[in-house]
Amino acid sequence: MPRGFRIKLMSAVVVLFSGLSAMAQSRTLQGTYIDNQVSVSTGIPAGTMVAIGNPITVSCTPSFKTGCTVVADMWASNGSGSTTGNQFELCLFVDGARADAYCYGYQGITPADGTWVMATSSQSLSGLTSGSHTVQAYFWSRYGCTVIGRHFNYMVYNP
To answer: What pLDDT, on a 0 to 100 scale, did the predictor assign at position 2?
Structure first.
């Protein structure tokens, strides 16, 4: 192997590992906020994004200029579908806007036979500024469904 090629290869490996270590950095938990409801039924009209969780105020006090990261682990039982191909999304909103433009893609299909399925999603948003922020879960269904029973864990991390 030529010497110049070896140097370029080693440089590429160093850059690759440097990028990987930056992605997997340690974070410190600032707080955990829980929104749970087992008996409330929410109708989701076709093609409409609907708030299914309570708006929760979280606090960010970053120790670095990069801000805080909010992570949402979300579960919501949905069903009463009657149409095949009824895709759904479970979405994290922060300060009234989606954390991800596509809610990390469709999470599943509501059964067409009227039975129930659990929607699950873990989403995050980094770079939150110091202060209070509002987090809330939303649900979207292509052809409509019903959400009953939900549990959301919101965690705020530093940096």
So the answer is: 55
The answer as to whether 7 is a domain residue is no
Is 114 within the bounds of a domain? yes
- Residues with Cβ within 8 Å of 128's Cβ and at least 6 positions away in sequence, in order, are 60, 62, 67, 68, 69, 70, 94, 156
Q: How high is the pLDDT of residue 101?
A: 86
| Predicted TM-score (pTM) of this structure | 0.81
- What pLDDT is attached to residue 112? 96
Domain that holds residue 54: 27-158
Please identify every stretch of the chain with a pLDDT value under 50, giving residue numbers as ranges: 5-22
Give the CATH number of the domain where residue 131 resides. Answer: 2.60.120.760
CB atoms within 10 A of CB 80: 17
Sequence-separated (6 or more) residues with CB below 8 Å from residue 11? none
Report yes or no: 133 and 107 within 8 Å, Cβ to Cβ. Answer: no
